[in-house]
Amino acid sequence: MHIFTLAALLRLQRGVRLHHICQRHLHATHATSSEWCVGQPFSNPLDELKKLLQVPLIKDENLIFKPTQTEIRKAQNIFQGNRVEPLKGIVNLDQLPARDLPEIAFIGQSNVGKSSLVKSLFRSLNPKTNHRLTVSKKAGHTRTLRFYEIPRKFSLVDMPGYGENMPEHFVRSAEAYIMTRQTSRLKMTFSLLDAHRGMTENDQEFLDKLQNSNASFCLVLTKIDKVPHSHVLRAFLALNEYREKHLSTALPQIFLVSSLSGAGIPLLRSFIAYVTGNIRISGH
Ligand SMILES: Nc1nc2c(ncn2[C@@H]2O[C@H](COP(=O)(O)OP(=O)(O)OP(=O)(O)O)[C@@H](O)[C@H]2O)c(=O)[nH]1
What we know:
Blueprint: H1 6-11, H2 18-25, H3 45-50, H4 69-80, E1 85-86, E2 103-108, H5 114-121, H6 127-132, E3 146-150, E4 154-158, H7 171-181, E5 186-194, H8 201-213, E6 217-222, H9 229-246, E7 250-256, H10 265-275
Parallel strand pairs: 2-4, 2-5, 5-6, 6-7
Antiparallel strand pairs: 1-3, 3-4
Helix pairs in contact: 4-10
Bound molecules: guanosine-5'-triphosphate.
């Protein structure tokens, strides 16, 4: 039986030192991006990583968000079957949208893949959004808070990145939005980290700020297509260990995604639909 509830997850802390276990039990592998189970209606890339370890990757499976295929399809319909309205980018918080919708924010180092992820969540059936959401190899491309609204359901907020080419207004725009908006509309902040680069000092600094702010946040490893599974596993375990030691308010679930291949995207859509109150998940 699932015991997953958001409130319960926020209280949970576990003390497993998986990183060290990993060093002893990791199978050598050169599996590549194409081997993530992208085509399956429900596929959590974490399931692929489990095959690389001889010990459980997750101590308590009950903590993992596991929607049914019907629930995943419902979430899919919300993202792909509705009109998406890209709003004008803002920098000043007094210009925040007035509409009373739940909001979800994506934050992370510049170039980590925030815009690509938002684009991937809405992909294909919304050509207008695809057109308006631009990505770039150049770090620091996104300069403003950009809201993508599904009317009457929720808004996704793409943010400028911290680190290289960070806009000078970052602290009073992006950071202030996350720290203050959580008391009203912001339901979850997704903190993105690059599976290829691993966690950087900038990431640690920002995650520590999130922890101290009591924001509801969870971690996402991006670009999992870019490196072998063994590399993703190491990045996952290092991040999980940091979470267990330092980020007691982060949700235990770490999402793995590739905006390029689509791996992990249906699961993330379901989670967003769930935390914004747009679908119910059985047993949770
Ligand atoms: N291989 C791979 N490349 C990706 C993925 N997601 C993003 N990228 C690439 O990474 C670069 C940066 O992507 P963006 O989505 O613009 O990153 P961002 O975090 O919004 O960047 P800033 O606007 O600089 O903050 C682009 O060249 C993307 O094509 C992914 O899942 N896999």
